[in-house]
Amino acid sequence: AVLTSGAVVSGYDNGSVIIHQEPYRLDASPTVVLKGHRAGVLSCVELPGGKLATGSADQTINFWGLETGMWEDSVNCNTAITGLEYSNGVLHVAGMVTFTSANSQN
Questions:
Q1: Structure confidence by residue, pLDDT tens digits, 77-99
Q2: Helix (H/G/I), strand (E/B), else coil: 5
Q3: What is the number of alpha carbons within 13 Å of residue 6 lying toward its C-beta?
Q4: Dihedral angle over CA of 26, 29, 33, 37, nearest 10
Protein backbone atom coordinates (compact mmCIF):
# COMPACT_ATOMS: atom_id res chain seq x y z
CA ALA A 1 0.00 0.00 0.00
CA VAL A 2 1.11 3.56 -0.59
CA LEU A 3 0.48 5.90 2.34
CA THR A 4 -0.53 9.55 1.97
CA SER A 5 3.04 10.44 3.04
CA GLY A 6 4.40 8.58 0.01
CA ALA A 7 5.82 5.76 2.13
CA VAL A 8 5.25 2.20 0.90
CA VAL A 9 3.96 -0.54 3.24
CA SER A 10 4.71 -4.20 2.49
CA GLY A 11 3.51 -7.32 4.29
CA TYR A 12 5.59 -10.49 4.43
CA ASP A 13 5.10 -14.24 4.91
CA ASN A 14 6.90 -14.14 8.27
CA GLY A 15 4.17 -11.91 9.74
CA SER A 16 6.15 -8.68 9.61
CA VAL A 17 5.18 -5.38 8.00
CA ILE A 18 7.81 -3.02 6.66
CA ILE A 19 7.27 0.68 6.05
CA HIS A 20 9.71 2.18 3.54
CA GLN A 21 9.83 5.95 3.98
CA GLU A 22 12.09 6.33 0.94
CA PRO A 23 10.79 3.55 -1.32
CA TYR A 24 12.41 4.83 -4.48
CA ARG A 25 15.97 4.72 -3.15
CA LEU A 26 17.46 1.31 -3.85
CA ASP A 27 19.93 1.65 -0.97
CA ALA A 28 17.33 2.80 1.59
CA SER A 29 16.81 0.67 4.68
CA PRO A 30 13.33 0.00 6.04
CA THR A 31 12.33 2.85 8.32
CA VAL A 32 9.90 0.86 10.46
CA VAL A 33 9.44 -2.88 10.95
CA LEU A 34 6.17 -3.91 12.62
CA LYS A 35 6.01 -7.36 14.20
CA GLY A 36 2.84 -8.82 15.65
CA HIS A 37 1.21 -11.27 13.26
CA ARG A 38 1.84 -15.02 13.59
CA ALA A 39 1.41 -15.74 9.85
CA GLY A 40 1.76 -13.97 6.52
CA VAL A 41 0.44 -10.43 6.15
CA LEU A 42 -1.96 -10.38 3.20
CA SER A 43 -3.37 -6.84 3.27
CA CYS A 44 -2.96 -3.38 4.74
CA VAL A 45 -4.68 -0.01 4.59
CA GLU A 46 -4.05 3.44 6.00
CA LEU A 47 -6.72 4.72 8.37
CA PRO A 48 -7.51 8.25 9.54
CA GLY A 49 -5.69 9.61 12.57
CA GLY A 50 -2.29 8.21 11.61
CA LYS A 51 -3.28 4.55 11.94
CA LEU A 52 -2.54 1.46 9.85
CA ALA A 53 -4.61 -1.74 9.72
CA THR A 54 -2.98 -5.02 8.64
CA GLY A 55 -4.74 -8.29 7.86
CA SER A 56 -3.11 -11.68 8.10
CA ALA A 57 -3.45 -15.39 7.46
CA ASP A 58 -3.39 -15.71 11.28
CA GLN A 59 -7.03 -14.52 11.17
CA THR A 60 -6.39 -11.18 12.85
CA ILE A 61 -6.51 -7.52 11.95
CA ASN A 62 -3.87 -5.51 13.80
CA PHE A 63 -3.99 -1.76 14.28
CA TRP A 64 -0.78 0.27 14.49
CA GLY A 65 0.21 3.88 15.14
CA LEU A 66 2.09 5.12 12.09
CA GLU A 67 4.01 7.76 14.03
CA THR A 68 5.04 5.44 16.85
CA GLY A 69 5.27 2.15 14.95
CA MET A 70 3.57 0.54 17.92
CA TRP A 71 0.81 -2.08 18.02
CA GLU A 72 -2.41 -0.59 19.40
CA ASP A 73 -5.15 -3.20 19.08
CA SER A 74 -6.27 -6.42 17.36
CA VAL A 75 -9.49 -7.96 16.14
CA ASN A 76 -9.79 -11.74 15.90
CA CYS A 77 -11.68 -13.03 12.87
CA ASN A 78 -12.67 -16.54 11.82
CA THR A 79 -10.85 -16.43 8.49
CA ALA A 80 -7.61 -15.26 6.90
CA ILE A 81 -7.87 -11.56 6.07
CA THR A 82 -7.14 -11.22 2.35
CA GLY A 83 -8.24 -7.64 1.79
CA LEU A 84 -8.79 -4.40 3.67
CA GLU A 85 -10.26 -1.16 2.35
CA TYR A 86 -11.29 2.00 4.15
CA SER A 87 -13.94 4.28 2.68
CA ASN A 88 -16.64 6.59 4.00
CA GLY A 89 -15.73 5.86 7.62
CA VAL A 90 -16.01 2.07 7.25
CA LEU A 91 -13.27 -0.57 7.30
CA HIS A 92 -14.24 -3.21 4.72
CA VAL A 93 -12.79 -6.68 5.29
CA ALA A 94 -12.41 -9.55 2.81
CA GLY A 95 -11.51 -13.07 3.87
CA MET A 96 -11.13 -16.60 2.63
CA VAL A 97 -14.27 -18.67 3.01
CA THR A 98 -14.34 -22.44 2.64
CA PHE A 99 -17.58 -24.01 1.42
CA THR A 100 -18.47 -27.66 1.73
CA SER A 101 -21.34 -29.44 0.08
CA ALA A 102 -24.44 -29.99 2.19
CA ASN A 103 -24.43 -33.52 0.75
CA SER A 104 -20.84 -34.17 1.81
CA GLN A 105 -20.21 -37.39 3.68
CA ASN A 106 -17.31 -35.82 5.66
A1: 989 999 999 999 999 999 875 55
A2: coil
A3: 5
A4: 40
